[in-house]
User: Fold this.
Amino acid sequence: MTKILKSNHAVVIGRAITKFGDHAWDIAVPIALTKMNPGSLAEVAAYYLATTLSVLLCAPRLSQWFNKSHRLQNVMVAIAMQAIGILTVTYFLYKAGHGKTSWELLLPIIVGGIIAKVGANLSDISLASDWVPTIFHRSTLAKVNSQIRRADMLMEVIAPVIAGFLLIMPTGFNFIAIVNIFTFIAEAILLTIVFKNESVLQRGSDEGGDDSLIKEPRRNFIKSFKLASGQYVFPLLITNACLWFTVLTPHGSLLTAYLKEAILLPESTLGIVRGLGALVGVLPTFIYEPLSKKLGIVKLAAYAITFQITCLMVSLFALAPSSINLFLGAIIISRLGLYGFTLAELEILQRTVPNKIRLEVAGIRSSINYFSNLVLYASALFLSQTSQFPILCWASVIVIFIGTLITWRRYMVPGSKEIQEMLS
Assistant:
């Protein structure tokens, strides 16, 4: 059968369409939540604390259930979860704006957010850790990963800016929700094309999960964590988790809420800040492949994370209303290091972790990332006043600095010759 669309193009386009809706949604939700209780970050922290906790608890177990013999069914379930969650959040936020008590509606809003977040996480895990490395040869993984990340970053440039201006209108939030539903439909169609084009996806794998993983999730989470900890990439997974403990990110919900409530930046400006952060983040997707060949993937990861922590230290000392431009500028430029590191970390995971356990390790990777994020939002729940935001900024820099030390201590010394040759 003639292929209607090349698989790499279909995957990239599908991801780009969905990420457009995701990034628009990510700026709309914290702004909507701050309107429930002006002057406080509590609602934002509670929402993201709950959604993060849900992924932490569900991701490893559900990624084990995502047996490779049911790949298309799995991503369709994940996409449907996202649509249901977004519709739920939209409905109850609409009611919150029409006379209902905010705290009565926060619980169903959080439930909808949980459904959407878990679905999005499962979709990301399935595509990045199963579909992509199964379809594409390892020699082309760097190129495909860069294309996907580039598409994501381009959508993060465009979507927040458009969303920022839409949110000025009374019906802007609802319009963003509708756009998200259409993006899910589009990605479902494109992934179906990929599935039909690629016989390797239809064959599944005889290296799938163990039924005992479902019967004893608590014991097997420990087993899975021990399995992941024995992988070459594990210290980078820990460093990546440190990056999730930060409020110093242009697309962070807490930073968005702080800038809106304390600095009084308008929605359109918040969208531009997010867009600039993503625009800078696009650059690593163009230079990653040649740099990884010149330096090696491991060195590139170490240099990238060092660049990021340097920029964040600058932003920390510029945290004052009078120097808000320098503060935001340093955060935006730090994205060069962030995305260079995450591209390297993902490729090392894809190339060094055996196929039969890759999804399981990816589930653990997701869990430790969200655990770090969970601790951040729990901290923000206790430090919910905007005047306490600088404390969260200092904590973010300290944690990322620890992650930088872990990377240099583990990888910038002679390692396994076999692994180093594989990654050169």
